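Appendix C reproduces, verbatim, an entry submitted by the partner laboratory led by Prof. M.T., so that reviewers can inspect both the input and the predicted structure.
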Amino acid sequence: MVNLKKIIRFLANLVYVIFIGYIIIWGVEYLNHLRKMVGQTYVMPYHYLPLNTFFPVFIGMLMALPQFINTAKKPGPWQLDWVILLSVGLPAFFVAILPWAYFTPIGKHLIFTSTLTVNPVLHTVSGLVSGYLLLSLPEKAERK
């Protein structure tokens, strides 16, 4: 016999995946529209770079949100794995925001900017990783 809680959990996860898929499709279509507009007018809209930079981070956060909600429901004090945050999260976030930082006054002083900004896959993956880590690293410590 099928457990009703498992069916409800399956349906909730399915709806959440469809919601994330819709957000991804809408965001990619909008970013493509902005890219086409930049290519036609040679004028970059003010919201193009922040959206292009932080959209993968936002999607990574959406992917980690269910785990974060389950963690938040547990009792106990919050703790953070600083080693993973500093060794994986910080470099991933640096690579994720590099295309935006490249156009700031400090952009000419950043290292590896030409190599890291031309690869959109690297930018997207690092944004997903940093967004996911942002919500998955905080944990509740178990009380003894």
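The longest helix spans residues 4-41. Additional entries are available on request from the coordinating office.
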